[in-house]
Amino acid sequence: MDGQIRWLSRGVIAVTSALWALTPLAFLVTGDVLSAAVSATLLGGLLVVYTRAVADRVKGAPAVRPLRTVACFALIVYGALPFLGPVWIYTPFTVAAAGLLLLRFRLAVTVLVAVTVLEFPLTRLLQDPSPVAALQNSAGVSAAAVVLFGLVRYAASVRELRELRAALADNAVDQDRARLAGELHDLLGQTLTSITLKTELAAALMPLDRQRAVGEVSSAIAIAAEAREQIGDVVAARRLLDVGAELSAAIALVELAGADCDLHLGISEIDERTGDALGWVVREMATNIVRHSDARHCRISLDSADGRIRLLIRNDGVRHEPGRRRGSGLDGLRRRVAALGGALTADATGDDFEVRVWLPVADDQEKVVSVDSSTAG
């Protein structure tokens, strides 16, 4: 587990320990030191087992002997009731909490209901014959167990979300690799076929028409040179992107990872080269938000002012990873933007990360790319 998950687990155990410690404290307040020591020993032992179960649940590991563990909780808690008396009457919530944590849903709910129902007669018998007091104890036991389980489930959900984000980022990388492989396959398949046909034709013409054969060889060389340039373009990612489609895809990816994304568009169309550069920025930053942050909120703004097109991408939840090597993504984006006479800045402030891009409006170029984010479908 990473640092955040460890701190969440410790927080869950801290809250649980504080709640469980109320019973020994109650004995101390009443002056019963022996009962306080006995209850602290019993609950301390149960807490050790519960702590291990919490750690396994947060990490996603399967429970070890869940039925036996819950039965052990019930035996200790209910077995001590005749000896520890009314103050011990609240501790059955630990049995319900263990059941919710360790057992499958239906069996866990059954244990919770059984503990809640059993609390009513036990309260009337050992503490207060009033039905109101018995109902209050039953509700309190049930609520305490559910709250403890909710804390554990929240910590586990954070871990699951982190894994989902990592899987989404890896999937995005795999898709880009598959796209690159597909482009190279399509490009080289046609190119190599043309070169093969022309060289075969040249070989056949060599004894009959040497001049035409030389022409076919020259043509094959030209095709090979063009293919080499096209392969370089594919590998260097020098291909045009639809900024509208990239905005739509970025919002979908960020929101799928669990963050809210606000989009503000103050411009309706843009020239092709500028849209391509902005599309790459949007794609790279969306991937970085998913892979390197625990973002809850993201804002993307695209507008124009003072003869410049402005793009802002901001997110919270920056994950501080001292051991992570700095990637070359932002440097590549800066070069791409600078080639069009613009600038890109990236700043981290606390848990927020912000990227700003300024590009000059290309008035001499036809506005051919729509920035409507619905273009991705």
What would a concise description of this structure say?
It catalyses: ATP + protein L-histidine = ADP + protein N-phospho-L-histidine. The protein is α+β, with helices and mostly antiparallel strands.
Q: What are the SSEs and their pairings?
A:
Elements: H1 3-20, H2 22-29, H3 33-59, H4 66-84, H5 93-102, H6 105-126, H7 131-205, H8 210-235, H9 243-256, E1 260-265, E2 269-271, H10 272-292, E3 297-305, E4 308-315, H11 329-338, E5 343-349, E6 352-360, E7 367-370
Helix pairs in contact: 1-3, 1-7, 2-3, 3-4, 3-7, 4-5, 5-6, 5-7, 6-7, 7-8, 7-10, 9-10, 10-11
Enzyme class: transferase
Domain Signal transduction histidine kinase subgroup 3 dimerisation and phosphoacceptor: 177-236
Catalytic activity: ATP + protein L-histidine = ADP + protein N-phospho-L-histidine
3D structure, described in words:
The structure is a single chain. The chain is α+β, with helices and mostly antiparallel strands and 377 residues long. It folds into three domains: 3-163, no CATH class; 172-235, Single alpha-helices involved in coiled-coils or other helix-helix interfaces (Up-down Bundle); 243-376, Heat Shock Protein 90 (2-Layer Sandwich), CATH 3.30.565.10. Helix content is 66%, strand content 12%. It contains eleven helices and seven strands. A five-stranded mixed β-sheet has the order 1-3-4-6-5. It has a two-stranded antiparallel sheet with strand order 2-7. The mean pLDDT is 83.
Briefly note the structural class of the backbone: alpha+beta
Biggest sheet statistics:
5 strands, mixed
Q: What count of structural domains?
A: 3
Strand content: 5-15%
Please tally the helical runs, counting DSSP H or I stretches of 4 or more residues: 11
Could you state the order of secondary-structure elements as H and E? HHHHHHHHHEEHEEHEEE
Helix content: 55-70%
Roughly how many Å apart are the termini?
38 Å
Ranges where pLDDT stays below 50 over 5 or more residues in a row are none
Radius of gyration: 33 Å
Number of strands: 7
